[in-house]
Design brief:
Length: 85
Amino acid sequence: MDNNILGLIFGLAFAFIGFLLFYGAYKRWKFLVDPPAKLWPFYTQSFMKKIDGPEGARSWVLFVGTISFCAGLYFAWVCFKNLVR
């Protein structure tokens, strides 16, 4: 399989994960925005909750979701552009 096709699939999957993170933070899914406090050394959302409270964890997930979505779309666009050449 061509590397550009794999890159396109990877980019779209990454964008989808970013969308799910953003949507989950928007809908306030409990495991994303209100994780258990005892997991703070292993779970970034729990660490952000410990530092900044539940809104800090939600802001972090919104930020990571947005960055992941944009990076995935950009990567998919670059691979698609190289694929149609």
